[in-house]
Amino acid sequence: MIASLHRPTLAKVDLSAISENIEQVVSHIPKQVQTFAVVKANAYGHGAVEVAKHVSKQVDGFCVSNLDEALELRQAGIEQPILILGVVLPDGVPLAIQENISLTVASLEWLALAQKQGLDLTGLTCHIKVDSGMGRIGVRNLKDADNLIAGLKALGADVEGIFTHFATADEADDSKFKRQLSFFTDLVDNLTDRPRLVHASNSATSIWHAATVFNTVRLGVVIYGLNPSGSVLELPYNIQPALSLETALIHVKTLPAGQDVGYGATYTTTDEEVIGTLPIGYADGWTRDLQGFHVIVDGQLCPIVGRVSMDQITVRLPKVYPLGTPVTLMGENGGASITATEVAEKRGTINYEVLCLLSDRVPRSYD
């Protein structure tokens, strides 16, 4: 999807805010801990290459979801360690070795497939994933972890790290978190051959469970200025949202009472109303369930009326404004603000998803 550069819809990314957020988090975790910035999913919609380049001197490495995301960073000149958090099948090993990309290995079945294919893993750096209770990928007991580490080393791999992922670190009830932490700690402490890097701390763990950090952390949504819990837990220190979403009025009309607006005629004016049209829609990630939410015009919250279309939305204005008047969908405008978390709560989802769904059609600009 091509970026629509010739319309006023734009996501503005404040790279200095990301840097400051990293500094803030790092100042609250134990010293001598390695820090990996998570830039998967296009850095949560912020732009993986631009973010990685900007923070490269602040972090020890990067985490991504898959091989293509890692290759994008390498092709952009990023030289630091890159760990793929998802599973890459053994077919991808030669390319990972060639580009010095670290792989996650999550099962003895992966090892057996590599052996069956006759792969030489010399030059491959990998991390073992432990399923401590998330139920997705990873080994589930000490014996399998020991056998996996030994088997990978026998094929020539450098087993650099071992890690897990917490399911409920961002929730008020920490009982599940404590069970996972205990399981992982016990497994790591009893390994026959313990890898150099041990990590379990994502954004939520780094914020609310800093005392449980091992020797490496993976900082994700928090560096972009979002509360990982949404509004469930209060942040212990300030972070700044790095992305704002803006557009402008492209059409303004005054409609009499009784006029329908949008697909399905789901909104009908009850009096004479000023309706403005904005060039953004669900193809941009501004989804249909945002009907009834609001935007900011001239410091005032203006409701979205009528259905969200693929390319346009309509809003009710307090008065007639000239074409080109700025409109804020996320961010601050005239003393009013809209956060990604507020958008998420309207959708019944999480702030991560709001930013990740912003499509490539929305250009990003960087300060």
TrEMBL record:
- Superkingdom in the source lineage: Bacteria
Keywords (alphabetical) are: Isomerase, Pyridoxal phosphate
Cofactor(s) the protein needs = pyridoxal 5'-phosphate
A Pfam family of this chain? Ala_racemase_C
Keyword check for Transport:
no
Where does the Alanine racemase C-terminal domain lie?
Answer: 242-367
Cellular component per GO, a single term: cytosol
Q: Which GO terms describe its molecular function?
A: alanine racemase activity; pyridoxal phosphate binding
Question: What does the entry give for GO biological process?
Answer: D-alanine biosynthetic process; peptidoglycan biosynthetic process
Q: Matching SUPFAM superfamilies, A to Z?
A: Alanine racemase C-terminal domain-like, PLP-binding barrel
InterPro entries cross-referenced by the UniProt entry = Ala_racemase, Ala_racemase/Decarboxylase_C, Ala_racemase_C, Ala_racemase_N, Ala_racemase_pyridoxalP-BS, PLP-binding_barrel
Residues the entry annotates as binding substrate: 136, 310
Q: NCBIfam families, from UniProt? A: alr
The function of this protein is: Catalyzes the interconversion of L-alanine and D-alanine. May also act on other amino acids.
What's this protein's family per the entry? Belongs to the alanine racemase family.
Q: Mind telling me what this protein is named?
A: Alanine racemase
